[in-house]
Amino acid sequence: MKVILNQDVSTLGRIGEIVNVRNGYARNYLLPRGVASVANEANEAALKHHRRILDKKKAQLMAEAKTLAAQIEKTAVTVYKQTGEDERIFGSVTTAELEELLNQEGLKVSRRDISLVEDIKKVGVYHGQVKLHPEVSAKFKVWVVAKQ
Question: Over the stretch 81-108, which tens digit does the pLDDT of each residue have?
Fold first, then answer.
């Protein structure tokens, strides 16, 4: 089934692109959530007409992502964890914990957009990455400190 994307979808494409997807994926996920619309002649004609609006929306989303990325680059979060031998922490630091800490800093990010370069298993300084836009990502520092 051909659909027109109304939002950026990391696995499919960008706003305004016409992509081919499976019928069930379109019917059960993309269409009900408003992420895409069916690519029929009327919608394609409307897409051509609204291309300028979509370009403005793309530019606005890109500008917002760059602004947020600049804020995230300046941010360092501190995670307090219980430690055992050799300064190894119990468990590991998860993206959900990092999401909560970044939200406390006033940065609205989703845990699904956060990735860690390596597993955090010891006390120290690590780097996390947030993918805000297909073309914009930001790195931030994660300080893991032993809980007293």
Answer: 998 888 888 888 889 999 999 999 888 8
CA 70 to chain centre: 15
pTM for the structure as a whole:
0.66
Cβ-based neighbour number of residue 67 at 10 Å: 12
Q: Which CATH architecture has domain 2-49?
A: 3-Layer(aba) Sandwich (3.40)
Residue 21 pLDDT level (bands cut at 50, 70, 90): very high
Structure tokens at 17: 């692109």
Under 8 Å CB-to-CB from 43, ≥6 apart: which residues? 4, 37
Residue 130: DSSP 8-state = E
